[in-house]
Design brief:
The chain is α/β, with parallel strands linked by helices. It has three domains: 118 residues, no CATH class; 109 residues, Rossmann fold, CATH 3.40.50; 125 residues, 3-Layer(aba) Sandwich (Rossmann fold), CATH 3.40.50. Strand 9, helix 8 and strand 10 form a beta-alpha-beta unit. It is elongated.
Amino acid sequence: MADKKKSSEIARTAIDPKTIIMLWGRAAGRCEICNKLLYCDSKYGDMANFAENAHIHAVGATGPRHRDDMRQDEINRIENLMLLCEEHHHLIDTKPEDYSGAFLCSKKEEHENRVRRVTEIQEDASCKTVAFFSNTDNVDVYGDTTAFKRAVIRDRMYPKQDEPIMLHMGAPTRYVPSKENIELKAKELEYQVRLSFEGIKREERIALFSLAPQPLLFKLGALLCDQLDTHVFQCHREGDKWAWPKNDDTIVNYIVKRPLVNSNNKVALVIDLSATIVDRRIASVLGNDCSIYHLTIPEPNRNFVRNKRIQTDFVKAFREVMEEIKNTHPEAERIHLFPAMPQSLAIRAGMDYMPKADLPITIYEQVNSIDGFIETITIGGER
């Protein structure tokens, strides 16, 4: 009974101000459960202290998660304290059976470790986040800015701005599978890139997130080119949608399949990485007198881009086949490009296209409603 009486007396003992300062620092002024900012009102933006210093193991003998074996000098230590918003302080204390001491200690450790890891990222690892989204085949796509931030931070960078530069803002979203529509969207994209990147210095990092019809992805890459330090993120179908999987060292072998029919002046490059594209589908568009190259992998699929090395190896293979086509077909005026590939690789191909050295590329879009391809935009031509 004496110990319990002393425990209740501690409830009236103020927490050391130094401990409160340290708790604020370790929690970065955010609720250690929901990450809510605790020094700024979320509705009006007024600055005030909305934080509550919550005990994991209660001070009083009848309080939530009280431990009889905890010494008096341990009650107000930082290890037993969490910085919480009012809502979650109330929640954990009214439902202690759902929020155990072990669970709260785990949440505290996760939050404070994340704060430490993020704040260890140096200023020279900052980046500007850029997003471009356009619906594909009448399926709306959109970006999740929180997922963008997670992906950037896992890649050992941090975003300079709260909201990304949205290259698609104000653009019509309706998908019309026609050359005219995609040409219009390409012109709008070019205008937005020029407008948005006017103040961006070449030494700045760009974190790029995009989902769009493949001709527009190529166009976006060509507009950004390889002169900017652009990190292109892949959209994943499993796990965290945009962040690179941890400790994934997968290697992909890219294969070049050379043409069965040799034509000096008509050349197609099929990049069938996500799905196989058979030659008869190309011949139905260009005719049978066409040299058809394939840049592919042993088992085409949509989920193989698991790390940045896979992107780098793709760029190397893309450059090699572009050079081979140019040297083998000196009479060709252009390359007819038929892509079925992950979105980040389409952007990287556009970035590494060299308009003054490479043949112009006319890009075709696959249209599900006709089960075929249509001609869209041409990139390059200034040789």
